Please model this.
Amino acid sequence: MPEKLSEEQVRHVAKLCRLTVSDAEVEHFREQLAAILEYIDKLSALDVDGVEPMAHALDVTNALRPDEPSAGMAIVDVLANAPQKSPPFFQVPKVLGEGGNA
Amino acid sequence: MAWNPTQTTLVNLRNAIAASQTTSVQIVQQYLDRIERYNPQLNAFTQIFADQALQRAQRIDTGDLAGPLAGIPIAIKDNMCTPYGRTTCSSRILENFAAPYTATAVEKLEAAGAIVLGKTNLDEFAMGSSTEHSAFGTTRNPWSTDHVPGGSSGGSAVAVAADLAPGALGSDTGGSIRQPAALCGVVGLKPTYGRVSRYGLVAFASSLDQIGPFAHTVGDVALLLEVLCGPDPLDSTSVDAPAGPFHANLDQPVDGLRLGLPNQYLSDANHPSVAGAIDEAVEVFRGLGAQIVEVDLPHTEYGIATYYIVATAEASSNLARYDGVRYGRRADDTADMIDLYCRSRSQGFGDEVKRRIMLGTYALSSGYYDAYYLRALKVRRLIKQDFDGAFEKFDAILCPTSTGPAFKIGEKTSNPLAMYLNDIYTATANLAGIPGISIPAGHTKSHNGDPKLPVSIQFLGPLFGEARLLRIARMYEAATNHHLARPELAQAD
Model:
């Protein structure tokens, strides 16, 4: 399995999951995550060839229901917790043009 | 007639209200008084709905509301949506979140006549084994306030242990009901995956999460399970399995009972009190005519490694929704969308949640998916096959819930791996989806200034085997009466 976890990898992962980490946090998390990953490496000792992966405890797939229209949540309720809103919309910083690098 | 909360059960209270020996208002008021007196030192509840609870109790007493739990006060872990109060998951990011809908489990309790007293503290987003990772302070063990209550449902376990509520709801993803129940000396049940609807339970790891009850007795949790279980069109993973009866046949012992004792759970790493509790349980069951045979669950030692890949991978996906856009905390003065996401999340989440999101993101990331996530899913299959084999020969597995009694506050917070290893005897049940129950099994000896702390044992059963599992647990409870012990709480001024 993997080489020792680097600071660069920690920064990369933080970016992937949209977390801002300070330099001090990078080292803090690197050390802790490296210890956890080292422990998890014990899985590599097992022979899992031919074992079917198990994503779910019960053998249930594609639970379907009749496609019947029903009322959704009222917009006022949907927006009730919004940090910033401009009904009937959620409001966010500018996405396009200047300042938008999303 | 007044009922002393420290000397009764939920079922007895229910019967007393139904027989007009007392009123729901009296019962609710007694628990509210105890909350007011003891919650400041324990921090079990983070929200209390006193007025609303009393109003509902009045309606019960005037006959407006009926049901199998009519008039019974209940505590709810604060990761289940309620249409009143806040649903915070003990996180800054949801500090002000008012849920626009109700969790099915809460709805079912209320439809049965139960009264929600308040919401209880947890490790942020249910990620932890000590309730120390809460944005609203640590919950304290009523047996010794220097010790943790376990977690993540520590607030619910303490609410019941300290008789601030006769029953409570928790959620169990890797042991978060059973381990705090064990450390606080109460009964905690994790039902089979799919038994109880997860609708309105804030998701941590969707293939592992399951809601379940806490109470002082096996009979009380059996009654609560009967109310909670059942299929729900709003949760496609909920299952239409026979809903008991769990409570009615409880005192009927299991004939020809065969219990498996897993070698892998009896390590030298266990605290002597844990080994002692297992020895005592073996004696008790032999005395009741049960056969007890050692069993191998060879993949047990891979349980934690597997769990912390599967659970964190699912969590990293589930917690992507906290982006500061539609609800939850939003950082001020953000330059653009990416900045808004990153800063809202970084300000809103605590360290443990960040650690798990990062671990899960890493395990799912390009180049590591096969080595970590896919491999963990395969080992998960092997762990389930261990249990399948055991349940061909045994009615249930008897084992410890935790390696030791409650540890001291602060003892493990700087070492996440040591904290994760707390879940070693509980997480495999979540991976396999099977039910498990933790019940009180005595106490450590108090000496050299060490306080007397609860010790517990666990029974694991096959998928949807709760009815038999509860009867087995009841056999032990009836023979030992360990469940009657109560902590001595410091008198508040």
The first strand of chain B starts at residue 45 and ends at 48.
